[in-house]
């Protein structure tokens, strides 16, 4: 049997990416929904042929505990709600995928990890690029030092924010601006290409454009991550500007680069030896099938909650560096690393 996945929050990402991807998965299928909008519930029920017994709202979702058709709960809500709903799903006895960023504080991440441990269920983060072959190639080239030691990295990810999802500029719901939402991909890309977590970070807020869209969260951030061997990564993210979407590494005897690097498709890669010529895949289908495989075969996921915690710790360090203007040590961040 295919494992049943319930999506919690039927916004843009669930509607545009996850539900369509679940039509292409081999090991799991869309088996339930949680939504606060009755009209959406009806429409999804019809469109995806869901039984009424697998349609919940935010108050009734705990009753999933009695629904054997749902094995995995996927939390696709505004960032500040990830912790509460992840914990409720774990307490209902389900395995959980929680969207990125894992939570809006390190303390919440730790509560989520404790809940997963107590429930004896797997908790993974919706890190789709860890299942994407261009990114695997960056991991291989960087970590195996195919062109020698990686000395310098550059990553940027940003787009002009149109306020179509207003919670993203509401600090209470988002936890922060583009660093939480888009910059997190730069943090990860650098860490898995280098194969190390940084030992320190420095950071600077970008200018706020005119208008009051960015009253509560940063409009842009530039930061540097420093590694133990002296190598550095320069990163940038923004909601005020369309950035190039790039992940590049300079090594002792060559370079490798993805551009565009972070989208759902259309990724392209090259190295100092020529184009990568790698096919794009349905990232979300791969990610969810991999998690289903981990659940079915009791294997650890490559994107566990501990990795989500690592990234939230690094993000908090970047905000601290920007707020103080000081270099912030990150040597206390546990190196949960992707293997090639
Ligand atoms: P969205 O605004 O389109 O959807 C959020 C959903 O949450 C909506 O259906 C909304 O009704 C619901 N919701 C429930 N309670 C709410 C509340 N109190 N306030 C506001 N909305 C509430 O957002 P989205 O773009 O789908 O993002 C959802 C999550 O998915 C975020 O954590 C985001 O970071 C993540 N995401 C990940 C990727 C990825 O590539 N992995 C891409 C997009 C979004």
Summarize the structure in words.
By secondary structure, the chain is an alpha/beta fold. It has two domains: 3-126, 3-Layer(aba) Sandwich (Rossmann fold); 130-279 and 304-329, Dihydrodipicolinate Reductase, domain 2, CATH 3.30.360. Helices cover 33% and strands 21% of the residues. The protein has nine helices and 15 strands. The chain has helices spanning 12-21, 38-48, 82-91, 106-119, 133-143, 171-174, 178-194, 283-296, 305-324; strands at 3-8, 28-34, 55-56, 72-75, 95-98, 123-125, 150-158, 200-205, 220-226, 232-238, 246-251, 254-258, 269-271, 274-275, 328-329. The strands form two sheets. The chain has a nine-stranded mixed sheet with strand order 14-13-12-11-7-10-9-8-15. A six-stranded parallel sheet has the order 3-2-1-4-5-6, sandwiched between helices. A hairpin with a 5-residue loop joins strand 9 (220-226) and strand 10. The longest helix has 20 residues, at 305-324. The two termini are 30 Å apart. The mean pLDDT is 97. The site of nicotinamide-adenine-dinucleotide has 19 residues, from helix 1. This is Gfo/Idh/MocA family oxidoreductase. Residues 137-249 form the GFO/IDH/MocA-like oxidoreductase domain.
What is the gist of this entry?
By secondary structure, the chain is an alpha/beta fold. The chain is 33% helix and 21% strand. The protein has helices at 12-21, 38-48, 82-91, 106-119, 133-143, 171-174, 178-194, 283-296, 305-324; strands at residues 3-8, 28-34, 55-56, 72-75, 95-98, 123-125, 150-158, 200-205, 220-226, 232-238, 246-251, 254-258, 269-271, 274-275, 328-329.
């Amino acid at each position: 049997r295919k494992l049943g996945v319930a999506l919690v929050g039927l916004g843009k990402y669930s509607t545009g990416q996850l539900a369509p991807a679940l039509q292409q998965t081999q090991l799991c299928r869309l088996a339930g929904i949680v939504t606060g909008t009755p009209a959406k519930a009806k429409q999804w029920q019809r469109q995806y042929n869901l039984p009424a017994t697998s349609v919940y709202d935010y108050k009734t979702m705990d009753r999933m505990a009695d629904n054997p058709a749902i094995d995995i709960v996927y939390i696709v809500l505004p960032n500040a709600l990830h912790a509460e709903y992840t914990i409720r799903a774990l307490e209902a006895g389900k395995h959980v995928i929680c969207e990125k960023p894992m939570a809006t504080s390190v303390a919440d991440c730790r509560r989520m990890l404790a809940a997963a441990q107590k429930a004896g269920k797997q908790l993974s983060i919706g890190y789709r690029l860890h299942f994407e072959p261009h990114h695997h190639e960056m991991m291989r080239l960087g970590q195996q030092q195919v062109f020698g030691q990686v000395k310098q990295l550059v990553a940027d990810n940003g787009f002009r924010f149109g306020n179509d999802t207003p919670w993203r500029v509401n600090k209470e719901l988002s936890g922060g601006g583009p660093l939480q939402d888009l910059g997190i991909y730069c943090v990860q890309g650098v860490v898995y290409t280098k194969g190390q977590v940084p030992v320190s970070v420095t950071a600077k807020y970008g200018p706020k454009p005119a208008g009051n869209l960015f009253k509560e969260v940063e409009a842009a951030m530039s930061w540097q991550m420093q590694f133990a061997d002296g190598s550095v990564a320069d990163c940038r993210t923004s909601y005020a500007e369309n950035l190039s979407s790039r992940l590049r590494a300079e090594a002792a005897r060559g370079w490798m680069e993805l551009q565009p690097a972070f989208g759902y498709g259309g990724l392209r890669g090259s190295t100092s030896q020529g184009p990568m010529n790698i096919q794009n895949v349905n990232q979300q289908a791969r990610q969810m099938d991999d998690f289903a495989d981990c659940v079915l075969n009791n294997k650890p996921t490559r994107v566990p909650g501990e990795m989500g915690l690592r990234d939230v710790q690094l993000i908090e360090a970047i905000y601290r560096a920007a707020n103080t203007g000081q270099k912030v040590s990150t040597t206390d961040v546990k190196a949960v690393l992707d293997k090639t």
